[in-house]
User: Fold this.
Amino acid sequence: MAKIKVELKERSYEIVVGTDILSNLGKIIKEAGWGSEIFIITDQLVNELFGDKLRQGLISFSCQTLEIPRGERQKNLKIAAKLYDELVDHAAHRDSLILALGGGVIGDLAGFVAATYMRGINYIQVPTTLLAQVDAAIGGKTGVNHPNGKNLIGAFYQPKLVYSDLQCLSSLPARELRTGLAEVVKYGIIEDADFFQFLETNAHHLNTKAFESPDTLRAALKVWQTIVAESAKIKATVVSHDEMETGRRMILNFGHTIGHALESLTHYKAYNHGEAVAIGMVATAKIAQEINLLAAPVVERIRSLLTRLELPVKLEGINIDKVISAMGIDKKVKGGKLRLALPEAIGNIRIVDDIPAKTISRVLQEMGCQ
Amino acid sequence: MAKIKVELKERSYEIVVGTDILSNLGKIIKEAGWGSEIFIITDQLVNELFGDKLRQGLISFSCQTLEIPRGERQKNLKIAAKLYDELVDHAAHRDSLILALGGGVIGDLAGFVAATYMRGINYIQVPTTLLAQVDAAIGGKTGVNHPNGKNLIGAFYQPKLVYSDLQCLSSLPARELRTGLAEVVKYGIIEDADFFQFLETNAHHLNTKAFESPDTLRAALKVWQTIVAESAKIKATVVSHDEMETGRRMILNFGHTIGHALESLTHYKAYNHGEAVAIGMVATAKIAQEINLLAAPVVERIRSLLTRLELPVKLEGINIDKVISAMGIDKKVKGGKLRLALPEAIGNIRIVDDIPAKTISRVLQEMGCQ
Assistant:
């Protein structure tokens, strides 16, 4: 088991990463005194998979499970309003505690409801997907989507604890595992060359097959323990230095400006988040190469690792102008200038302003854009 | 002009109180660099009264005015959603700045939208009612109502500035002015005996008549300057010590637990907020007297000042059990115990737990409850 501290003064909290730990959570909550009454927010599938295990440890609490429909499209203000209604119906009060059991959608939505119910009640992230364990559940970004933009309505609101059980990963479909791996690779690129190398060395283990037999499961869990804990540590460090994303936290957006544009352009259907980010990272690395910030062999290392992890690195059948325009309305635009987080080397990133659209166009064309 | 600092570390801000200062706000925003684009959120009446004056100073900004329908019933999630839509339509971004121009409803709602649009953008409170200038606009409580409870959905989110123009008070109806005075009296009781005495000395000036002739207007504005600035200072101090209302900030609830019960019971029709709080303060002072915390002559001083300010101090035609039950579901209930902020003397208050319902019943009966 690993414990990582997110240092945010009076809002500091721990990330716990371990195997088969769900049923211990109740004891931790009791000792910390985080709430007298528990509301688990989850979806039906996740509830079927992990709900009972989690509730086993909560028998000494009054506990309600609130299920919401599954999927990114449910992350909206209407579902949030429904959750407020249910909390009110169950007389949830300031000492009530929300557990967000699920992936990023559940975490963002339940976190937002926790942030805004009675001006903020305690909540704990219990992420069950790789993407949520290494990214979404850490850092206090909560929110729901607006028809015209993802996460347009939200709040920065830190959980009391992030509680990641690696056992949950074994039930993930391969594509879901891969989407998380894109963010894992990102952490290596932006902050930690050794970690990137660890991923290169272990890439052949990083798939769902390792979970399939009891023989390989133990070895796999050991690798995943390192991956989730290291990723969490990197994200925690960045968040500690810039809780509200006014500066340094922007480096976490490496690959995301182009990634978000692709997701939005294809109406969140062609690519999942990690796939779009994988393409975005390759494109962004190539932009860094174009402006002589990054050497060509490093771009190739990035492309090669992502390919081995079965993540997409090409961009076919997409219109260049549409990507550029989709980037222009991305919420990372500051004062009208296009600003990107660009790598100088593996483990080293910087923010560059005023990147010309034609550089971006050229790179997109190289990658197969029309 | 007075400036009061609300000390909240990196979230600190100033309260400015002055006369005829609306048109200077643009200059202050420019110098502070709080935003490149301004959205004024207001209602039609307030916009007609003060909008042009405010916009006079904003000519160098891109500026949109978003009007919402007037009244407490509009403070809901649906109107917030409509404001999100309008902000998105106007491509509001992270550097956009919201000005909340109006009373408490506008301030709470616009503050909540600012707190949750793109996870928080800058906003400034420009309170135009006495109640908002001395209370609602200070301290970062933002939110909207749920059909089952006031302010059930909200966030703590501090403005960049509270900018109170006393000139706005001259257009307030008498009853609106009085509702603010109840909170003003509260500040004297909970924190400042000298200020309470100042109110006793000047009670005859504290009405709308003083605004009516140019002769009395100047003297009146001087008195109001003291009242608004002193009230703001007291609230700022309490908020500085307890931003999230986990402890000391509870003293601001003096009179409010009973007040809220009365408002809720009468469906926010029989009493406005200040009237309900006035009755609540007298009842609470009597409870303090019943448990030998407060001397009878002090209760009489409180009752007498409120009466001179034409605020209600009796409770007729209301059912005792309904008040008690309405208090039981009030959100200030912690762990099932009834906890009240009770005065020990003018300027001195403390939190008392476990107040027996029968003490409350007896007091309510004395005040005319059935």
About this structure: DSSP finds 13 helices and eleven strands in chain B. The two ends of chain B are 48 Å apart (CA to CA). Chain B touches chain A at residues 36, 77, 81, 84-85, 88, 91, 93-95, 115-120, 141-143, 146, 148-149, 151-157, 244-245, 329, 331, 333-335 (CB under 8 Å).
